[in-house]
Amino acid sequence: MALGSLVKTLQNIMRNDAGVNGDAQRIEQMTWLFFLKIYDAKEEEWELYDDEYESVIPEGLRWHSWAVDHLDGRALTSDELLRFVNNELFPTLSGLELGPDAPLRHVVVKAAFTDANNYMKDGILLRQVVNEIDRAVDFTEYRERHAFGEIYETILKDLQSAGNAGEFYTPRAVTDFMAQMLAPRLGETVADFACGTGGFLTSALKLLATQVQTPADQELYSSSVYGIEKKQLPYLLCVTNMLLHDIDSPQIYHHNSLDHDIREYRHKEGEQFDVVLMNPPYGGSEKATIQGNFPLALRSSETADLFLALILYRLRRGGRAAVIIPDGFLFGQDAAKVEIKRRLVEEFNLHTVIRMPQSVFAPYTSITTNILFFDNTGRGDGVWFYRMDMPEGYKHFSKTKPMLGKHFDHVREWWGDRREIVLPEGPKAKRYTVDELVAGGLNLDLCGYPHEEEVILPPDELIRGYREERARLDAEIEEMLSRICAILGIEEV
Length: 493
Prior knowledge:
Elements: H1 6-14, H2 23-49, H3 63-66, H4 78-94, H5 104-114, H6 123-136, H7 142-158, H8 172-182, E1 190-192, H9 199-209, H10 215-222, E2 225-228, H11 232-244, E3 252-253, E4 273-278, H12 288-291, H13 303-314, E5 315-326, H14 327-331, H15 335-346, E6 349-355, E7 369-375, E8 383-387, H16 409-416, E9 421-423, E10 426-432, H17 434-439, H18 459-488
Parallel strand pairs: 1-2, 1-4, 2-3, 4-5, 6-8
Antiparallel strand pairs: 5-7, 6-7, 8-10, 9-10
Helix pairs in contact: 1-6, 2-6, 2-11, 4-5, 4-6, 5-11, 8-9, 13-15
C-alpha cells in the first residue's frame, strides 16, 4: 500500500467499529499500534548490536509474536484477538515491574500503556487494522522508517481537527523557525516542558542530525533532547516520534512539569538545560497546590505564566529560549505577569519579540500569539519587536492554506540585519531600551497590528444610512427576480 493512503485506510476500517468514536480515538488507536511495531523494529536493531539485550516485553506480547499474519490460519483474530489485547497485552505492559535504574527504553513501554486504551470492539476489524500496519512499512529499513515520518506528520496535523487534541500541534513552520534561530549544537541539551507530540524536539533534532559525523557525535545526538508531557495521547505520540528519529532511549517523561517546587532546580545537577523551545498551554487554570510550587511573586492561576516562570529556573546560565505566548501576557498587569516581565528584561536578556498573525493556530484557536526570544546571560540593553504581517494573497491561515516555512523568510532576513521599520500606521520593527520598557510599566504590547477605527455616527445619520442601504438591496432583489421571471417566461405578480 502507498504510505500516503495508510492513515485514511485505517480510519475507514475503524469507522465501522462501534467502539471507536471520533478522530481523537482513531488516532490513539493507531498510535499504540504504531508504537509497538516501531519498538519491535528498534529491538531487532538493539539485539543485533548487543548480544546481551533482553526485551522488557514478554516474548508472546512482542509485535512479531502476535501481530504478524503468516497466512497459515493461526493469526489471532475476532474474539480471541480482543481477549488477548484487553486481558493480556494492556494489563501486562501497563503493569511492568521496573526498578529505579531501569533503562529509559524500558520505562517508555510502561508509560506508553499506563493510560492508553484499546477502543475497538470488533476483533475482525482490529485484525484488519493490524494487518494494514504490518504490511505498510518495514520499520527495520532506514529509508522506509524515515519515509513514514511524513505519514506521522499527517497524523499530528489531523489532531488539529480532533477536538481538544488540537492543542498538541504547533505548525511545523513555527517550530522549525524557532529552532533555527536558537541553532542548537551537539553537546547541548534541548528541552520542552510541555512537549506534546514532540514538534519542537524534532525540529531541533533535524538541525542536530546534520552535525553528526562520528559515533561519539551519535551518542551526543541520542541524549540531546528532553521532554515532559502531562497527557497520555501526546506523550505516546512523542515517544513514537523520538523512536522514528533514532532516539533509542527517549528522555520523555509522562507527568506534570509544574508539579514540583521550581526553587529546587537551581541546585540539582542535570535539571537545567542549554536550549528551551516551548509553546506552553495557555488559558488553563492551575489549582493552589500547583501554585505553591512557585515563589510568591510568581504565583498565578494562568498556566502560561507558570511555564514561563519554570523556564526562568530551568534555563542554564548562558542558555537561550524561544517561547510562544499569547497577547495577554504582553499587556497583562497582574502581579505575576509584571514580575515575570521584569525578570525577563532586568535579570535575563529578552532580546526579541516576534508578533505573529492571528490565525497561525487556526482552526484550533484564533488567539494572537507571539514568540519571545531570551537568553540567561544577564540584563540586556534592549528588546527588538518585529510584526510579522500576513503573506501577500492571504487573508488568514487555515487548514487548507497553513503557515509555511517560506512565510518566515522576511523575518529571517530582518533577523540578520536588524533595523527599525516605520510605516504610516506605526512601527513594524523597533528597538526599545530596558529603561523605556520599565518606564512604560512593562507593557510589551508594542509594534502590534493596526486597528481600523470605527466612526460612530449620530442616530439620525445611522437610521438614514440603514434605510438607504435597505432600499438599494430591495431594488437589486427586484431586478434579479424580474430577470428570472423573464428567463422562465413567468409573468410578474
